[in-house]
Amino acid sequence: MTRAACLLGLFLASLSAGCGPAGESEAATAPKSAPPEPRIVRLAPSMAASIRVDEVSTCDLPMTLKAFGKVQLNEDRMAYVLAPLPGQVVRLSARTGDVVRKGDLLFMINSRDVAAAVGDFLESRKDLELAEKTCAMTKALFEGQAVSAIALRQAENDLAKSQGRRARAAAILKTLGVEMSEGELTSLVPVRSPIAGTVIDRKVTEGQYETADSNALLTVADLTSVWVVADLFERDLPRVAPGERAEVTTLAYPDRRFEGEVWRISDGVDPNTRTLKVRILVPNPDGRLKPEMFASVLLYVRGAEPAVTIDARACFVEGGEHFVFVEQAPAQFERRRVEVLPAPDGRYRVLGGLRAGDRIANEDVMLLRAQESSDTAR
Asked: What is the rounded CA–CA span in Å between residue 48 and residue 42?
C-alpha cells in the first residue's frame, strides 16, 4: 500500500468517528475521576509509642431502634398563669427567662371588685368593733340592774350579726386572692408562681387590662426534665414499651448522650405517616436541651445482636461527620470517615467505614489531629 492510500484511509476513519453521536467519542476517551487520596498521618517513632492502638471487634449489643423527634416541654411540669379576676396588671416583675421559685410574686392585679370587697370588709370590721363595745357596756349595765335582760339579749344578737358579716367579708377577700395581713388592705391582688421553674413566655405588659377569661399571661415551666417526642413506625410498636431505656442526641451536642426512658406511647396512628408518637422523659438538670430542638433517639428493645463496635474515645466529629484514624503501618494512620450509632458503655456501633480486625487509634486522637493539621499547613 502506498503512502497516499494510508493517508486516505486515516482520513476516512476520522470522518466515520465524527459522524457518531455527539459526545460519544469524548465519553469514551474522558478519564474517570479517581477516588480521593487517603489522608495519611505519619508520626515519629517516639510520638507513635504514646498512641494506643486497638483492634476493632465484634460483640453482642442490645437491639435498638432509631427514631427522630423534637424536644418538648414536660407538660406535667409547667403552669399557665391567668388573671384571677378582671383588673389592671401592675407591678409586673416577671420577665421571659427569669428563674422563679414557687410562690414568687409575678405581678399584681388592681381590681374594682377587690376594692369594693375591701370596702365591705373595712365597714364590717368597724361595725364589729362598735358592736363589741356596745355589748360590753350593756352587760355592765345589766349587772348593775340599769338595763333589762331584753336589752342585753338584743346587744348580744347585734354582736353575733356583726361577727357573721365580718366573717363573710373576710371569706370574700380570701376567695378573691387578697392576702389578709396586718398591713393596710388595698385593691391589689398578688399573682404568684404556682411552681418553681423558668418564665418561658409572657403575653402581658404593665398597665394592661385583663379579664378573668383571658388567655395565659405567663407560662412557667420546670426545665429540669423535658420530653422528647419521636415518631415510631407502626411495625415497631410491639418492640417498644414504657419504662424501656432510650438515648437522645442533638445537633447542638453530637457527642453527648442524654439518658431517658420511654414514658408514653400514643394510642392513635397518624394515617399519613403510619407512625405513633412516643414520649421519652429525659432529665435536663443543666438545661442544655431546649424546646423545639431536633433530636435523634435510640430506643433499646428486647434481644441482642452481634455488631462491630469501637470505643467512643477513638472517634471525633468534624463538619457533622465522625472520623477515626486507622493504622496502615507502624506510625502511619489513615483518617477515615465512619458511620456510627451510640451504644452502651461508652462505645459506638459501626454501621460503615470499618470492619472487625481493623486497627485504630483509641487514645490520644488529638495528637494525631494536631500532626495532621501541621502536615496540612506545610
From this structure: 9
Compute the distance between CA of residue 347 and CA of residue 349 in angstroms, rounded to an integer.
Answer: 7
Q: Which residue has the cell 407591678?
A: 91
Q: In terms of domains, do 245 and 284 share one?
A: yes
Phi (first) and psi of residue 283, to 5 degrees? -60, 140
Grid cell in block for residue 161: 350579726
Radius of gyration of the chain (CA): 40
Q: How far apart are CA 357 and CA 55, in angstroms?
A: 6
Q: Which domain holds residue 178?
A: 112-186
Q: Is the pLDDT of residue 84 over 70?
A: yes
Q: Is residue 10 included in any domain, yes or no?
A: no
Q: What is the mean pLDDT of residues 42-47?
A: 85
The number of folded domains in the chain is 3
pLDDT at 373: 83
For 174-191, write each residue's pLDDT tens digit. 888 787 665 577 778 889
Please tell me what DSSP assigns to residue 219.
E
Task: Calculate helix-pair angle for 149-176, 112-143, nearest 10 degrees.
Answer: 160
Instruction: State residue 222 phi and psi, 5-degree precision.
Output: -85, 110
